[in-house]
Amino acid sequence: MRRLRRCLPIFLFLLLGRFALGSSAPVSIRVDVVAPGISSFDADRMAAVARSVLSEELDWLFVFDAKALDSLVFVLDDTTRDDDTFSGASLYRTTFSHGSKQFPLAFLVRQGERFEEVWSRTLRACVRENLPEIFSVPGAPTITHALPSGYWVATGDEQLRKGRRVPVKDVRGRTIALMTVADRFVHQEEGQEDTPVVELLPVWASRPITKGMGLSLTGAGSSWSIAPTASSGRAGARLGYEGSLPSSLFRFSAAATGAYRWDDAHVELMLLAGISRGFSFGELTRDPDRIGQWWTNLHLDGKVHVGFGIELSDSTQVRFLYGADAQIEFSHHDSSRFFWGVGIGYRYVAVRENGSVSSIQSNERGITLSPTIGWLW
Fold this sequence. Notes:
mainly beta; 50% strand
């Protein structure tokens, strides 16, 4: 059995409060990884991997600069390697420590596996799981559990009402994720006090969402969109709005539409109101590490509206319109603010004139295709 002196107590030479999320002027620091007592080859490999992992996992909490004067110092120390217990594999045991806190780790590197990949995966999981115990994020509700089924915040804060959208921000104030409150409940566990819990689901994310990240309680969570619309014999535009409904995952949806029918030279103007419900593909994944990949920011939304309007003709005749539409929209959120997509829907519109009601379209003309771009606030 060969001993390599390696594992990870984590030493901070700086006062964490200077760099914690929410500081008005974040200070740049660098990551230093020290590996005393290990052969130079192993020290170089382990330190390089640890430096990369820590820089990636903590880049939302600190501003890193390789030339900064101040540093976070991590120590790789007191590690064992066992080449005899498992045939064709090496067993590593180590301890990830910070001050008096210690987190024992063990991982197996089999033949054909790269040591760097296994060590990176093990260290990354440990940092994500134990980060709230190592670093504190004052001044905001924080994500306390990152589970395959969703994210929990152990809080009874009434501002986090069901259906509300809340941003997750980094130390620079940039939004790195957008979440929606999916549920509120009381978690009961034998032998412990009941805990109020807020459950979150991802709407958009630029990186994996981890325990310890803070939520911002600013922003109304509404969205605006604009879309050109086209169907057989008709073309126009649609301005849409969505906002949250109290204690519901359904959202209020409204639209103003205008269209021109060139076969009979009529203009239609309508106001619509209804509800919408959607989900992101990130809600479907059972692996929190995948959140932030492009496909987890895909959305599928359904909308139903009713409304009324007017029809104008060249003869200045004005007729009263009313009707309903249903739409399915497939979109991609490129950022916390911008999204684009395409929708397909069906609408039925009737005209009332001289006491009688009649449809002004065939089924074919009721089908509408609409590429969409939008913004979230």
